[in-house]
Amino acid sequence: METMIREEVQALKRIQENLESCILGKTDEIKLLLTAMLAGGHVLLEDVPGTGKTVLIKALAKSIRGQFRRIQCNPDLLPTDITGVSIYHPRDEVFMFRPGPIMTNILLADEINRATTKTQSALLEAMEERHITVDGETHELPKPFLLLATQNPIDFEGTYILPEAQLDRFMMKFSLGYPDEQTEMRMIVSQSIVHPLDALEPVAESNQILAIQQLVKQIHLEEAVAAYLVAIIRMTREHPAIFLGASPRATLALVQAAKAYALLNERDFVIPDDIKFLAPYVLGHRILLQAEARMEGATVQSVLQSVFQQVKVPVRWEK
């Protein structure tokens, strides 16, 4: 298995190098994106416009030679604009399914919180079940399938709050943020002649990603580390500053993400540091704070740090 891991890690490193050539200075965020893809999860990128979210997603699709589709969300978007629609053909006297943009490997739902809640809900079945139902007929999605949604901050004009049920189906939520000064200077130089995305070449195949996803499931999760993970989850449900803690779906998402992250780091086992690194991104959007805690200045991230301090790390990994 160690030989398999080395081979697959080399493929992942090539993908990571591709992405880093397009999005400079965002190594951690790129690793989070790859982790979610390998774990079979979906990602919500929240950021102001112009930070490179769309370029990152396009670069990923191109790197794995995957099908890519984009939905530009707006208040006029209908559920059938995403899933597709059955059209009646008078000559053949049958209904023919015309697939929507969701029938792809990588789907970008740009500015998802500009769509109405009804349209947002059209994505729930696809995110969880990997298929859609149109006029009572079920259609399987291509494999692999990865939804990457972007959203502007809630206080931007014309945005809707994503319902908790949909937020819970995103494995991770993170932001790219602004580049630092040196990175922005490098960006100017690198894009002065040609955009890096135009010169990008595929370095893996979508079928190869499916094989790596199966390998992720074989990564070992020791019982002590699993108990540490569960203790963190349960503490989010008992912490006095938290109104709504992490769900059982969050537990499973954190397990899969930790296994994928271990593989990215060339290990066939999970360590507590994997969980501590990933937990803010996997749990942060699933937690609601008490009103009193928010008024006192608490944030989800600060409360999660409090949770980490209260949960004891397994003895073997204590520093």
Automatic annotation (TrEMBL):
Pfam families with a match to the protein in the record: AAA_3 (PF07726), AAA_lid_2 (PF17863)
Protein origin, superkingdom: Bacteria
UniProtKB keywords: ATP-binding, Nucleotide-binding
Record flagged with keyword ATP-binding: yes
UniProt entry tagged with the keyword Translocase: no
Molecular functions per Gene Ontology: ATP binding; ATP hydrolysis activity
Residue stretches making up the ChlI/MoxR AAA lid domain: 235-305
Domain annotation ATPase AAA-3: ranges: 42-172
Family indicated by similarity: Belongs to the MoxR family.
Protein name listed in UniProt: MoxR family ATPase
Species of the source: Paenibacillus solanacearum
